[in-house]
Amino acid sequence: MQANRCKWLLLLQLLFATAATAQVYKRVTKDETLGNSSVSKAVDSLCECRSLCLVQLNCTGASYDQNSSLCNMTDAAPDDVTVVPQADVITLLKFQVSPQVDAINYTTTKCSSQIAGPSPNVIFVTQATTKDGSVAIQRNLCIAEGGKPLYIKTEEQRTAATKVVNECGQSYSKTKYAWLTATNNGYNNLLDPSKQFLTWPDGTKVTDQVFSSHDISNVKWWLPASTYNKNGKITGGYTTAYKVLPVLCLK
Fold it and tell me: Whose CA is closest to 200, among 214, 216, 189?
C-alpha cells in the first residue's frame, strides 16, 4: 500500500511539473536538517516527503527525519533558508546553495584537546592517523572521536579546516595534510574527461559550493581519494598514502 501511495505521489508531482514549472531538487544532503521549517507532517517515507514538497510550488526545501518519520518543509526564500547538522536526517533543497546558507560560526580545537564529547560546530583532525583514506575508514575514525567526516561546503568551514590542518595536520613534502572524504568516481567514465571530478559522499560536486577547479589538483580517474592541505587546497590521490594522515571531521 505504501509503495502504491508513493507511485501515486510521484505521478502527481510529474503532472504538476508539466503543468507548472519543472522544479527539481538541486541539492540533497545527509545528516543535515532545515533550521527554519514552517510545516511539520508525519509521513510514511522519504519518497512521500520528497513528493509533498515538490508538488507545492511555494515549498523551497524539506527535511525527512528517519527516526521520527517527520517531514519538515519551508516556504522561505532561498537566501533565508538555513541548514544545520543533525544525524539521520535527509534534506532536499530546490535551489543551489549560496555561501550564506549553512552560515554557522565554526571553531577549531587544539591538537591536544581533540577528544570525544558534545561540542557542536567544531572542526578538528583526528588524533588517530591512517594510511587508508577510504571513506569507510575516515568515517570510523571520526566517529571514534565524537564526530563525523567533514564536507566543506561553506567559506566558514573552509577557513576553519585550513586553520586546523595548518596547526594539526601531518607534515609531508613541505606542507601539512589531512584526509578528506571527497572522492573521484571517474573510473566509471574513463573516456569522458568532463566526468572526472570530485564528489562528497552525499553525491554533491565539490565545485558546487566554495571550491573552484583552481583549488583542486590531481583529479585523475586512477586517484579515487583526496587530501586537504594547510593552504586550503584539495589534492587527488591514491586511497593508500605514503604517510599516515589524520582525518578532517566535524562535531
Answer: 216
CATH match for 2-93 among 2.40.290.10, 1.10.3720.10, 3.50.4.10, 3.30.470.30? 3.50.4.10
pTM: 0.56
30-44, 81-95, 103-117: the lowest-pLDDT one: 103-117
Show the DSSP H helices in 20-65 as ranges.
Answer: 46-54
State the Cα–Cα distance between residues 59 and 39, nearest whole angstrom.
10
Do the beta carbons of residue 124 and residue 109 sit within 8 Å? yes
For the chain, what is the mean pLDDT? 80
Q: Fold for domain 107-250?
A: Mannose-Binding Protein A; Chain A (3.10.100)
**pLDDT for the residue numbered 210:** 92
Give me 123's grid cell.
572542526
DSSP character for 247?
A: B
